[in-house]
Specification:
Elements lengths: L10 E4 L6 E2 L1 H15 L5 H4 L7 H5 L8 H15 L5 E2 L3 H10 L3 E5 L4 H11 L5 E3 L5 H10 L3 E4 L2 H9 L3 E5 L6 H6 L4 E3 L5 H9 L8
Parallel strand pairs: 1-4, 1-6, 4-5, 6-7, 7-8
Antiparallel strand pairs: 2-3
The chain binds magnesium ion.
C-alpha cells in the first residue's frame, strides 16, 4: 500500500461514470439513438446498470464483432449531443475534487470513457481537474495512476479496485455504481464510502495519518 511520504505531493485519481457523474440518462439516450439508427435492439436500461467496462464490451452484447468498431465510432460521435447535456454530478463530486485541490493536491480523472467526451462532461458540469486520461480500464488504469503518482484512486467498479491495486494506490470505493458496499469490500477496497459526500472528511483523516477506516 502506498503511504504518502512526508512532503510528497498528493495526487488523487477519480473514475468518471457513476463516481463523479451520473451518466446513466445520457448513455441510455445514446444507446436508444444507436438502436433507432441501426434498427438493432439494445436494452439500454440494462446497459446503464453495468457502466464501467469499455464501450466495446457492452456493444458486443448487441452487435456482431465485425460491426463493433463502426458502431462504437458512431456512438462516440453522437455522445456530445445525446449524453453530455443529460448528465449530472453525483452528490459530493464537486466537493471531493475541491477537497483534494484545496489541500494543494492534484485531482486526475482516469476513465474508460473516450477522453474527449470525458473532457466535455467535466467542462459541462464545471468540474476542473488537473489531468485527464481516457480509454483505460482495470490494470490499464493502474499504469496511468502510477505515471501520475496517484496514492489514492476513487471508483465505483471492481475494475477500479483492480486499477488502484495495480498502481499500489489506496482503493477508495463509492457505492454509487453497480456494486453495493459489501461487494466492494469483498473485492478488496481499502475504504468504502456510501457516496462522495463522505470523501472530504475521509481525506482529512487520511492526510492526518489516522488509520484507514471503512464505513
Ligand atoms: Mg465508474
Amino acid at each position: 500500500m502506498a503511504d504518502l511520504a512526508p512532503g510528497a505531493p498528493l495526487t488523487v485519481g477519480f473514475d468518471l461514470d457513476m463516481t463523479l457523474l451520473d451518466t446513466r440518462p445520457g448513455i441510455k439516450a445514446t444507446y436508444d439513438a444507436i438502436a433507432a439508427e441501426t434498427g438493432v435492439w439494445i436494452d439500454s436500461a440494462l446497459a446503464v446498470t453495468r457502466l464501467g467496462p469499455p464501450l466495446e464490451v457492452e456493444l458486443a452484447h448487441w452487435f456482431p464483432e465485425e460491426r463493433i468498431t463502426e458502431v462504437a465510432d458512431r456512438y462516440r460521435a453522437m455522445y456530445p449531443h445525446t449524453a453530455v447535456p443529460a448528465c449530472l454530478p453525483l452528490p459530493g463530486a464537486r466537493e471531493a475534487v475541491e477537497a483534494v485541490r484545496a489541500r494543494g493536491g492534484r485531482a486526475v480523472v482516469v476513465t474508460g470513457k473516450h477522453g474527449p467526451n470525458a473532457r466535455l462532461h467535466l467542462d459541462h458540469v464545471g468540474i476542473g481537474v488537473d489531468a485527464l486520461a481516457g480509454s483505460v480500464w482495470a490494470q490499464e488504469k493502474g499504469a496511468v495512476l502510477r505515471a501520475e503518482g496517484a496514492s489514492v484512486y476513487v471508483g465505483d467498479h471492481l475494475g477500479d479496485i483492480t486499477g488502484a491495486r495495480a498502481a499500489d494506490a489506496l482503493a477508495v470505493a463509492v457505492a454509487t455504481g453497480p456494486f453495493g458496499a459489501e461487494a466492494l469490500r469483498e473485492a478488496g477496497a481499502d475504504v468504502v464510502l456510501d457516496d462522495l459526500t463522505a470523501f472530504p472528511e475521509w481525506l482529512e483523516s487520511h492526510l492526518l495519518g489516522e488509520p484507514t477506516r471503512s464505513r
